[in-house]
Amino acid sequence: MGLTPMMQQYLEIKESCKDCILFFRLGDFYEMFFEDAEKVSKELELVLTGKDCGLENRAPMCGIPYHAANSYISRLVNKGYKIAICEQLEDASASKGIVKRGIIKVVTPGTYTDSSFLEDNKNNYIMSLYVDSNKNLVALSFADISTGEFSCTDTQYDLSIILDEISKYNPKEILIQDNLDDKICEQIKERFNVSFTRLPDQMFTTDAEETLVSQFSNFDKGEYTDTLIKACNGLLSYVIDTQKIPLPHINEMEYYNIVDYLTIDSNSRRNLELTESLREKSKKGSLLWVMDKTNTAMGGRQLRKWIEQPLIDKKAIQKRLNSVEELLNNISAHEDLKDALKEIYDIERLVGKISSKSVNAKELISLKNSIEKIPAVKNILSSFKSNLLNNMYSNLDELKDIYEILDEAILDNPSISVKEGNLIKEGYNKEIDELKTAKAHGKEWIASLESNEKDVTGIKSLKVGYNKVFGYYIEVTKTNLNLIPEGRYIRKQTLANAERFITPELKEMEDKILGAEEKLVNLEYEIFIQVREKIEAQVDRMQVTAKIIAELDCLSSLSTIALENNYIKPEITNSEELFIEEGRHPVVEKMIPSGNFVANDTHINTSNEQLLLITGPNMAGKSTFMRQVALIVLMAQIGSFVPAKKAVIAVCDKIFTRIGASDDLAAGKSTFMVEMWEVSNILKNATNKSLILLDEVGRGTSTYDGLSIAWSVIEYISGNSKLKCKTLFATHYHELTKLEGILEGVKNYSVSVKEIGSDIVFLRKIVRGGADQSYGIEVAKLAGLPEEVINRAKHILERIEKENGSDINIEDISNLREVAVDKVESNEKENSTEVVVEESIKESAINTSVKSSNVSKNTLEVDVSMQMNFADIEKQNLVKEIASIDVLNMTPMDGFNKLYDIIKKAKSL
């Protein structure tokens, strides 16, 4: 036995898309066979059947109705599958033998554009990643087929930069070289839910420059590296290969430099809850939830981009702020603007549908109605004077010619399907008008026929009907058959309780009506295509208008939240000062009753108040305070007003956070390991213009080890002249408060707590000075631990404090700082930040983990689990201090002072 011709055709087509599920069109169904059928039946819970295929065993088969395919495709794409759509390419009735079939589109997670699959206010990105290991370069390109956006960047290879850019765009699919190291993919998969597609190298390299020149109006090969060109070519080639049609709306390649925007690494984006909450993974509870008061889907997507990519250019930030201020000061005009924006549909995605030939007539009417509102928007903009709003007014194209084409051609309430007629307005095409008249005349004749036949026969129940099988017919119930005049009708069909008849005149009119209908449907479709092509020729103009509308909607949203939430205009500077008076957390204040949020001041710079050491109990508000500082800075650099009484914001280049941690058991990483990895990443990549938030560094290990690491990190940030950036450092190690006065720029702050008897009340106020205790037991009491557990904890604490002492004398181990600073200075010459940090932390951990001072350092490096008390540490440090004295380079007075200091320390031991 051999395969049937149809199954041979199936397997030939399947061979060209082995990595896809093949939807094979058979009549009114898409059928899947063999492994595809087994896979889909399981994923979609469909019945698995079989089909004779010419082999000994039946081929496994399952199918779905073609008209319901989108919902099934969406479910499969969401699971990461690719779908190849195979259609019949000719009329089955007109073909001889097997109907010609071919793949018309490949649907993948990054290229699916069905409106039921896409979120209105969120882009659907596909990304290309190309690594040139010889040159140590990496290039990234991103596209959203639904809107036509195409952007790219390149830089020196650094995995952390790749991860940061992925977190910014959150693509659904990443295209990579066939030979790319699996370790890179594993690192990405650990952090993002994304599917990978490996492409052969020729997809990136073949005809790269020619492909980009033909697609992008602004492409100049001399401006880009070979690595970037390959990344862009791989992405564009893949998009064209899957969509099977030209895409004229992807017409501009936007290059951006990573350093042109505020850098926020993937951990910080998550910790700050910029676009989704940590717990629920939803928009509610995020910064986007507070800031998004946009009126259009385009504006919603643009605002998300602004939040993901804050500015670092003072002039650009100031332009946005001035525009927001002008809208805020013109409430009446702003309200009119919002009303006009509410009537504008998603022009960006409508343009994408026009370009991909998938737009229907109703969507063109939505485009027409949107264009109708643009003159009103432009008229409102004419009254504004700020640079940004004035430029928008000058560049906003009203698209009047496109409106006129649509208004003349397309019915106001057309059919959804473009192949069922009822699309074109009367008067637009003479032939269509004639066919509509013929069709209407025929139907009038049919309607009068029923009335005439009732009069002639006297049969009141007689009716004229229609179906696709028999066409028009006259139906008479069997009880009335004797009333029909002999020879008047020709019998056509017998039913259980009636007979159906025809007449020569009825069939003649049927031919005219159906002929007119078929011609009308075909002609209307042809005219519709002509109209669509006229509109398609203007996609670049519509995209410019859509972009202006989107940005205007963002500015409107920023003005709205400023008014509703009592935000103020920040002062933007390039200085080192960050000053916030009565700052508030923009999200938390919206989640609690109005007026209950406790505002706090912040003053931080890179000199005398460079690192704010914040102490206080859990649940007192330390993390909220730190996050609000970062969010206020971020909002200001977006161009938004901020929740404060006054704000002077020094432009930051990067924001880093290490707030909270959870075990990454799947990757074999403990809480402490994750914490140390994040801290290491921050210290390697921060600059003196960065803002760092560190919360409870060192809490994941033993008390003394954690204290040592926290202290060493503080020392490194404040002592490294190349770093020395604005830092908020929250800790439970209240012993660290003694670093103020020892380390330059370290200042103590704490959260106010009021004690009422044995209870405490969190005042949520950040005040100058450190906390003298952590109130851990009181917090446990507030959490509802049993009273006997609380009382026992107090007893144990008293006993530990009596035996070991409640304080650690930081001043007496200050020689560790000298060791660390020396290493910083020596390593700065070698530009090895990583070595400095690792050695500094290691030195601190070793020196605070010794059981006995007689153990050598080599032994300690093997076993650092043993602990020593702080009296032994003090003795060991005194010996070190004496041994390190350089007598030959000291003045007599310096020697006298040093001897006095040593004697004083020795007496205290």
Automatic annotation (TrEMBL):
Residues noted as binding ATP in the record, renumbered to the chain? 616-623
Database matches in InterPro entries: DNA_mismatch_repair_MutS, DNA_mismatch_repair_MutS-lik_N, DNA_mismatch_repair_MutS/MSH, DNA_mismatch_repair_MutS_C, DNA_mismatch_repair_MutS_clamp, DNA_mismatch_repair_MutS_core, DNA_mismatch_repair_MutS_N, DNA_mismatch_repair_MutS_sf
What terms describe the molecular function in GO for this protein? ATP binding; ATP-dependent DNA damage sensor activity; damaged DNA binding; mismatched DNA binding
Quick check: keyword Mitochondrion in the entry?
A: no
A GO biological process of this protein is: mismatch repair
Where is each DNA mismatch repair proteins mutS family domain found?
Answer: 690-706
Q: Alphabetically list the UniProt keywords.
A: ATP-binding, DNA damage, DNA repair, DNA-binding, Nucleotide-binding
Q: Look up the signal peptide feature and give its range.
A: none
Q: Which GO terms describe its cellular component?
A: cytosol
Q: Does the keyword DNA-binding apply?
A: yes
Assigned protein family: Belongs to the DNA mismatch repair MutS family.
What does the UniProt function comment say about this protein?
A: This protein is involved in the repair of mismatches in DNA. It is possible that it carries out the mismatch recognition step. This protein has a weak ATPase activity.
Record protein name field: DNA mismatch repair protein MutS
Q: In which organism is this protein found?
A: Clostridium magnum DSM 2767
The organism that produces this protein has a lineage beginning with:
Bacteria, Bacillati, Bacillota, Clostridia, Eubacteriales
